[in-house]
Amino acid sequence: MTSLDLLRSDLTRRGILKGTGALVISFSAPATLAEAAIAAIAAPKPLDPTQLDSYLAIHRDGSATVFFGKIDGGQGTDVGIAQIVAEELDLPADKVAVVMGDSAKTINQGGASGSFGITWGGKPMRHAAAQARQTLLDLAAKRLDVSADKLTVTDGVVAVLDAPAKKITYGQLVGGKFFNVTMKWNGKIGNDLDVDGGAPLKKPADYKVVGTAPPRRDVKPKVFARPATYVTDIRLPGMLHARVVRPPVAGAEAKSVDESSIRSIPGARAVQKDGYIAVVAPKEWNAIRAAQQLKVDWSQPAPAFADPAQLYDTIRKAPVRKRTVEKQTGSVDQAMQGAAKVVEADYEWPFQSHASMGSACAVAEMKDGVMTVWTGSQKPHYARDGVAALLKLPPEKVRAIWLTGPGSYGRNDAGDAALEAAFLAQATGKPVRIQGMRPEGITWDTKGPASVHHAKAGLDAAGKIIAYQFESKGFSRLDLDSNESDPAYSLIGQQWGVALKPLDSFGTPDEAYDIPNQLKAWETIAPMLDRVSPLRTSHLRDPVGPQIHFASESFIDELALAAKTDPVEFRLRHLSGRDAAAVKAAAEKFGWTTRVSGPSSDSKADVVTGRGIAYAKRLGTIVVVAAEVEVDRRSGKVRTKRFAVAHDCGCVVNPALLHNTIEGNIVQATSRSLWEEVRFDKQKVTSVDWLTYPILDITEAPEKVDIVLLDHPEIPPTGAGEPSSRPVAGAIANAIFDATGVRIRRAPFRPENLKGSFA
Amino acid sequence: MTTQVRLSVDGKSHTISVDDPNMPLLYALRDELGMSNPHFGCGLAQCGACTVHVNGEPTRSCVTPLSAVTDAKIVTLAGLGTAEHPHPLQAAYVAEQVPQCGYCINGWIMTAAALLKKNPHPSDDDIRKGLTGLKCRCGTHMAIIRAVKRAAATA
Predict the structure, then answer these.
(1) Which end of chain A is less crowded, N or C, counting CB atoms within 10 A of the terminal residue's CB?
(2) What does the alpha-carbon distance between residue A547 and residue A730 come to, in Å, rounded to a whole number?
């Protein structure tokens, strides 16, 4: 039996716990490809959110497996979950395997979403583990004939406190059997799901595993090129390779397809339905050639897009589709009138692409009445729902299995690939593997929205902000929802003409500045093309965080200048508690010298340096970034020399993995700040590859990123996957001002955009 | 019309049948030989995810026609080292926990391996210049530089 056969035979959720299912697990969850591979089980009971067995199993050898309804995009979320569970169970972390991302084995906990992996995803796992421990202690008490409070647990061995020779292992107690324990479920599915059986949780002061740094479980498989590590590696007997054929011009529709144009390519044929076109062939290279050669007669629609040179004016003039005031305190207008000084500024941010390392891939197979889809989607349970809706199958006849994709920073092109693979498998009656060519990942992925931001504030005579107004206007961050549970949020569904369900959402600055009179609001506008648009917008890492905080933190520096105050001192004037501590920590790590920002008057050099700082919160996490930049005033080239970061996300579960996660955020956000801008003309997106969508090169990477982790074991963790992305653009812009005296209010800070600004 | 092509990959000889002798090497490695490691990233030689060594030189297999490598010695990441006998760069990648998604890994490790062969003790600047053009979308550049330095120190 091959691993795939095992996987397929495992479709029924009712399974007997076995000690031989390691292959199954290792295939579907890279996490458990760990060196210390743990003999695991086949599947939990029918997935019932009230049942402890849906979340956790104990094996005969005393190790555990948890079934986690989220995924890990390469930041070690699964390791953090293993640590949290191990902590409550009194097991070493490497005795806890984590199965994740399989809709048949895990309850929908929302997939990767909002940096909630540990924050929300860890809660039910922790509660389940505590419940399991209590249940095990009760069982041990009966078996050892003492009361449970006389027992202690060390590495899964339960012993009597004053008679340590009397002991029994977790494996002996329930190994290979179900707990059959019901917990109180909060009735939610997705991010908010929680369960609690009432078992006490371990006190942070007693933590032994949380706060340590066990390594990632997917690094060795990746470094040593183990098979089936990525979704792209799935190969099924008789599988066809597919490539999609997207319109050459936004809004174009196929009038006819000339199938004879690919007849000379062995096995190649076109598959079409209601305007969606793909080619399939048994050989991948032949599918690629067929997609290039297929002759399609496309309609010539009117230009769909506004003149890109006028993008920001277009946004400003566009009718508002939705306005939301997120915060209103005091009276901004009144306070503004009484201000000693009023400052006002506008900022602009472009469309950005996920531009994942490879375009998305999915593999689908219809077998025995069940459609199985292997996907890199961050939200496999929702991909299952989307496939079911698209193909009109009952959801229980669809299984989505997540495997690492070529990049995962939100709702990228993976959601489209999943639905398209499933359709093609159904249409051809064969297993189908689809992968995009480069334009599918840059031209056709969902985009982070372009936006404009207007800020206005009043300072009193002492240089304190007394009135603050911040308003954003842009394309919705969720014209497509951040998951593909409804075909309305997929290219194939939109191509087929399903009713659109655009969502209107944006955001406001997240900070804790103490300002008495505030108005924070956002407005969304309609997309330029509402269906099958290469400029469709959805969640890209830290959705709308970088643009909003580029604007708001640049503006705080403009206020500091107006108050003739050092930017750190100015922020501290309005902050307290953990926020102030983080600002101080970043400034100290950076070696900040207190002075009003701006170049010294004798600085006439061509290459100048400056320093900037920015602070932001994200759903409880606090990040402060200080940057040193070098600006070549002739070429407009900005080089980020070094960063110092202070990061406070409450309890640090794994400092080493958190460090790398923050570092990745800083570098990726630097790339977004310095380079990234989706280019388009009136008819199409013209960013099609790495030359037309450049990202940061290693020669431009900072020399140093110093990171201070402000650990608060007693405060539940608040998430770290994205927050450190958001203050980076502001810190860089503030440093550019310090170096040059020129305020840059539009991103990205590309040389060609800045050239001439510093003359 | 199918043609037979002989390939030497990671020390083993293979003969494969292809419809197009100009098919890029990447598809032979992945689809004909069933390898998982060289990745399709862009198909345009712009990212490096498909990098292998051809006669010791880092080469973008996504644009290298099979006809150009029939007599060549091809080494992939899987042939560079194993968990039991890792190449110093692989060991350093594990020690530094470098990758996030890791899809770019073939480009960086194979290019850096060739760099270290020519320049066993590169400066920071040598490392950056030697690896320029490779893409990592997750932003693991700092860890990559640490790993190359670690490998140079331990090789």
Answers:
(1) C
(2) 9
